[in-house]
Design brief:
537 residues; elongated; 11 strands; single chain; alpha+beta; six-stranded antiparallel sheet
């Protein structure tokens, strides 16, 4: 049985801690998971309920200068209390080491946690880091080594800054030689390399460099506001950067002031943090996805069960699609294919291709934040067309999604509408005026693919409709990014009308249907965006 090692407890007022296992190793220190084993006079054990784990950073010291630097790190960190900063509980000086006792964060370093982040997730992380820095700067502390490895993400997604080993506090004597650059290559501000003193702008530059590192593998084009933040924060000229962490938050989010910096946390006991950007849009996407999943679940269950059971299935799929959009989307598509096959309303070909194509689409959800939260978005074309608003789907998707995801989803929506009308509708494609008859749903997979290929070759209006919807959705979304939604609406609606008139609609009746649908959708979009702009959305 391994021997348990203890630290602390040898001086009045110190806690005693049992080291459990090493959880981290750096160039100058090791970090251990530990547990308190007695009740120190500072009341730390009471804070943890007696059993909660802590982290102990062990810093070896071989000179008086190293001891001063380690004690200084502990003293600086011990004075900071913020929800986005790892809380330092106790500093214990030893003969050959300094022990920093901190809260134990269950999670992963930011560089590991961010491997599967969306752009929206990266934005939220940057906001939390800036909130922590805004507070630290207000206490006169410059971190000087901001990078993904020095931020921990707990199991709730909260970011906590750590490692204040090279922090600079106003009024302190510098422990590094003049002209010696402190920090990590790639994250050090240019003026530090020129020998200037660290300032708040030093940390702002490092946050910008951190943003570049986290966004390096994102497949999407960056939103204009995020791109502006990164470019300004990493400007070689300090005067071009945001003047403070609070100003950087304004650039990143458009808010007038910081969203979570509090100097009186101990007095109030509760910190209030505003909703991160994109949260409301994400919730709308999830809700719409849940509604579509519930609708599909009801249709599929209605083929096999009674009304009450169908409603129960619909409710279950709806809730699941809100919580786990992509997983539920795949489940409801597979379930619908099985229900169609068992009810003999579709053959093996359709029952096979439906989940295959649906699974490929859901797997491609990484093309945009919207597609991952609204994977069933293309199927909205079917009910919207039934109520005369199908041509408005590109406007809806352009409002909710980023350009790439909106364009692909709108194109897939047009194809979904065509497939539905060929298989379960009357064979007349809305907004085109093409009467293509029924596509036999009992065909096998190969025959079904051949029939679809022949339809596309003989009727070029089908892919043109998908392309038109993709362009309209992309224009609307891009215009919103640029803050010119009215111009985007004019271009999308005007271009859509020309597209229908010149290339897509083949009969006057179909053209009139398309113009009416597009006009109604444009009016609804304009009203919503006008009201949204008035309330500061």
């Amino acid at each position: 049985m391994a021997e348990t090692h203890y630290i602390g407890g040898w001086a009045p007022g110190q806690g005693c801690y049992a080291l459990a296992e090493m959880v981290g190793r750096g160039g100058f220190a090791t970090v251990w998971r530990a547990r308190p084993v007695d009740a120190p006079r500072k009341g730390l054990l009471g804070r943890f309920g007696g059993e909660q784990e802590v982290a102990v950073k062990i810093i070896p010291v071989y000179s008086s200068q190293e001891r001063s630097r380690a004690l200084r790190e502990g003293q600086i960190a011990e004075g900071l209390r913020h929800r986005n900063i790892v809380e330092t509980l106790e500093v214990i000086p030893g003969d050959l080491e300094i022990y920093l006792v901190t809260e134990f964060v269950r999670g992963a370093p930011l560089d590991v946690a961010a491997r599967h982040y969306t752009i929206g997730d990266v934005e939220d992380v940057l906001i939390q880091i800036l909130e922590a820095l805004s507070y630290a700067h207000s206490e006169g502390v410059i971190h000087r080594d901001i990078k993904p490895q020095n931020a921990l993400v707990d199991d709730r997604g909260r970011v906590k800054l750590t490692d204040f080993g090279v922090a600079y506090r106003a009024g302190d004597t510098r422990l590094t030689q003049v002209g010696y650059a402190v920090g990590t290559p790639g994250y050090i501000a240019p003026e530090i390399l020129d020998g200037e003193d660290p300032t708040e702008l030093t940390d702002i530059y490092a946050v910008g460099a951190t943003a570049r590192a986290l966004l390096a593998h994102q497949p999407e084009e960056l939103p204009p506001r995020l791109l502006e933040f990164v470019n300004r924060a990493t400007s070689p000229n300090p005067s071009h950067r945001p003047r403070s962490a609070a100003a950087a938050l304004k650039v990143l989010t458009g808010r007038r002031e910081s969203t979570g910096t509090t100097r009186n946390t101990k007095k109030k006991g509760v910190e209030k943090r505003e909703t991160p950007p994109g949260w409301y849009t994400g919730q709308v996407l999830r809700v719409v996805n849940g509604l579509v999943a519930g609708w599909l679940g009801y249709l599929g269950a209605g083929l096999l069960f009674g009304g009450a059971e169908a409603l129960g299935v619909a409710a279950g799929f709806g809730v699941l699609a809100y919580l786990l959009p992509r997983l539920a989307a795949l489940g409801v598509i597979v379930a619908l294919a099985v229900a169609l096959f068992r009810s003999q309303q579709a053959g093996l070909g359709f029952a096979t291709l439906l989940p295959v194509v649906g699974g490929m689409w859901i797997a491609a959800g990484s093309m945009g934040q919207g597609t991952s939260r609204l994977p069933l978005g293309p199927l909205l074309a079917i009910p919207l067309a039934a109520y005369g608003l199908g041509a408005g789907l590109p406007l809806l998707l352009g409002t909710l999604m980023r350009p790439l995801g909106a364009a692909f989803t709108a194109a897939a929506g047009a194809l979904s509408l065509v497939v539905y009308d060929l298989t379960f509708g009357d064979g007349v494609i809305p907004y085109l005026g093409l009467d293509l008859g029924d596509l036999p749903v009992a065909l096998g997979p190969a025959d079904l693919l051949q029939a679809g290929e022949a339809l596309v070759q003989n009727n070029p209006q089908l892919p043109l409709l998908a392309a038109l919807w993709a362009v309209m959705a992309g224009v609307v979304s891009l215009a919103q990014w640029l803050g010119q939604w009215a111009l985007g609406l004019v271009l999308a609606a005007g271009g859509g009308a020309l597209g229908y008139a010149l290339e897509v609609s083949v009969t006057p009746e179909a053209l009139g249907e398309a113009m009416t649908s597009l006009g109604l959708a444009a009016i609804m979009y304009a009203v919503v965006m006008y009201l949204w702009s008035k309330v500061g959305g």
